[in-house]
Design a protein that fits this description.
Strand order of the largest sheet: 1-2-3-4-5-6-7-8
Structural class: alpha+beta
Number of strands: 8
Helix content: 10-25%
Distance between the termini: 91 Å
Shape: elongated
Order of helices and strands: HHEEEEEEEE
Radius of gyration: 39 Å
Strand content: 25-35%
Number of helices: 2
Length: 141
């Protein structure tokens, strides 16, 4: 029993000496005895209002109002030229044959179908050309 008390006291005494060493003679803790100068925050600079963020919205339900023309290189080594007419496309094949494609359904601007059941899907710089009876071709601008 006496041995247990001695062991407990042997742990407590060094802790008391360590705590006593942290307190200076004037009684104030060492961390508080140092005075850190307080610097007032600088006045906020006049900030210019940020320009409004540009919002890019892709609305596939609204027909395109602009017309344009682009040439696409296809995987089979061929080329096609697509003229965007807003709600329809005019496609000129490598042989010079022209085919009209209407928006399908009519209120969007990425999927087009011709009377011959050929179809084109435009996705950014790519056009997927599907011709009846052949494998679909990916063409890029």
């Amino acid at each position: 029993m006496m041995f247990g008390r001695t062991v407990r006291v042997s742990f407590i005494v060094p802790l008391l000496f360590a705590a006593g060493a942290c307190v200076p003679e004037d009684g104030a803790p060492k961390a508080a005895s140092r005075v850190t100068p307080v610097v007032p925050p600088a006045a906020p600079a006049q900030q210019q209002p940020a320009p409004p963020a540009t919002k890019i919205t892709t609305d596939l339900t609204a027909p395109r109002l602009t017309t344009g023309m682009a040439t696409y290189r296809c995987g089979n080594g061929g080329m096609i030229t697509i003229q965007n007419l807003g709600t329809s496309l005019r496609v000129v094949g490598q042989e010079g044959a022209t085919e009209e494609f209407a928006a399908s359904p009519a209120n969007q601007s990425s999927r087009y179908q011709a009377v011959t059941h050929d179809a084109i899907v435009i996705d950014g710089r790519e056009a997927l050309v599907m011709k009846r009876g052949s494998t679909p071709q990916t063409c890029t601008r």
